[in-house]
Write a structure and sequence with these properties.
81 residues, single chain, mainly alpha
């Protein structure tokens, strides 16, 4: 599953914070570090999925019936923005 090895040097205080979290959760120090990386630097798919979820959860807005009216409205918004 994992195919890259990383050597990471930590000062004693940081190591103890990570190790304490690992002990409390009953997981390895490596697991805590991997999860911290995933939280700090989400995968691109996670960003896209979150954006899609926000779009799908948005309330509907009224749109003009005529596509030309919609185009004018969008152009006006673009000019103002």
């Amino acid at each position: 599953m994992y195919d890259r090895r990383l050597q990471l040097l930590l000062d004693p205080e940081r190591y103890e914070r990570v190790a304490a979290r690992a002990r409390r959760r009953k997981v390895s120090v490596a697991t805590v570090i991997r999860e911290a990386i995933d939280t700090a630097i989400p995968a691109a798919d996670t960003d896209r999925r979150g954006a899609a979820d926000r779009i799908l959860a948005a309330s509907p807005i009224p749109l003009p019936d005529d596509p030309a009216d919609l185009r004018r409205e969008l152009d006006g918004a673009h000019d103002r923005g």
